[in-house]
Amino acid sequence: MKKKRIKQWMASKLDLPADVLLDVPRVTMIGQFECRLDQHLGIRQYHPDLLIVNTAYGLLAINGEGLEIVKISGTTMVIQGSIHSMAYTEERKPT
């Protein structure tokens, strides 16, 4: 827990984005048709209308129509389709 607080402090003092030091997910939307997700921890469930992804903050559910994973590499994923909503469905427990 102390390590996390130190990283948060460093991110604020060095004026760095939190995802750089804290391993938190970064979600970038382009309209409602493309989503780039960085720092994911794997796919939990996939259907063309629902994608559930593991992240350091818990499960991220992406709802839509015709969802397709067009790129996956390391911890980066690009999803295309008609994206209706995104929400964390479960908070990850602190270790």
From TrEMBL:
Entries under NCBIfam families matching the protein:
spore_yqfC
Q: Which domain of life is it from?
A: Bacteria
Name of protein = Sporulation protein YqfC
Which Gene3D superfamilies does the record associate with it? Answer: 2.60.40.2000
A Pfam family reported for this protein in Swiss-Prot or TrEMBL: YabP
Concerning InterPro entries, the annotation shows: Spore_YabP/YqfC (IPR022476), Spore_YqfC (IPR022477), YabP_sf (IPR038705)
Q: Where are the transmembrane segments?
A: none
Q: Which residues form a coiled coil?
A: none
